[in-house]
Amino acid sequence: MKENKEKKRNLFNKISLNLFNFIFANIIIGLIIAIPMVFYGPFKNIKELVVTSAMTTLNHQYLATLFLNETEIHSIMANNTIDDSKNSNLDEISINNSVSTDNQGDKGMEVKEIKGNSFSGHLLIVNDAKRIQLGLTENLGRFGMKLDDIVKKENAVAGINAGGFQDENGQGNGGVPTGLVVKDGKIVFDDKLEEKVSLIGFNKDGIMVIGKYSRSDITRLNIKDAVSFSPFLVINGEGVIKSGNGGWGIAPRTAIGQRKDGTVLMLVIDGRQIGSLGATLKDVQNIMLENGAYNAANLDGGSSTTMVVDGKIINNPSSKDGVRFIPTSFIIK
């Protein structure tokens, strides 16, 4: 049964991707015709969106480099950078286990549909932050697993993909994470490339921790579960993207955040498909702020973006091969 569903999903994804590629190709043709307006006209936002989207891909940077020189591209990218150098203040979060979950059903969680001008997605709202745990592939450092299989293995009720992984030319098997992975207070993977790494996770009290930390900080801050990724989007109640779109263009997105009362927000935005092209980091930041996030961070997106609820994948991952193999996930027990 699961294999049939997977085949249908893969077929749908391939058709959707081919249709998207056809439309994308026509958009490119349209852009070529409209190049003077896009790159040399008065529409700054469109120009920035095209350049940042192109420069954050592996195969389509030519869309910017063909028409703009290195200095111009650098200037646009610099104007769309994010200063996420601050760390979250753990003292500002007050876990309130008495918050009503009447509107969240028996499982204490609620799925909210998200709609934007160019995207759609899902926001999973979880009242009890202590239910959030880190789910891992069985062969961390070797082979990844699909999110729905990780959720099933962990006897969880829901989950989203989490940290990044080595993915050379988009052909990685999802087994080797980037940065640090912390599970139950212990470092279970470390690529040892940086002294301080960008961590996104939760301490033993269920408080979300985001910031650049050393390995010794993990014990000091009682960090229970964490992965490495960036950028951070909301720190201590403030959005960090003050101008521009965040510099990563539009794409499928995954993010996680927490309100001041401890409520956890898990977000996925579909992309690279009909009806949902994707979101900018600024879009994701705004969604998190609009839904009360006091701290929030970007997780691995693109073709990895996946959300599982009650054993089912509820979004539409953009990979032509279906759900990707990943090393880590944030799950709800």
UniProtKB/TrEMBL annotation:
Residues 155-332 form the Phosphodiester glycosidase domain. The chain crosses the membrane at residues 20-43. This is Exopolysaccharide biosynthesis protein. Keywords: Membrane, Transmembrane, Transmembrane helix. PANTHER family: N-ACETYLGLUCOSAMINE-1-PHOSPHODIESTER ALPHA-N-ACETYLGLUCOSAMINIDASE. The keyword Transmembrane applies. InterPro entries: NAGPA.
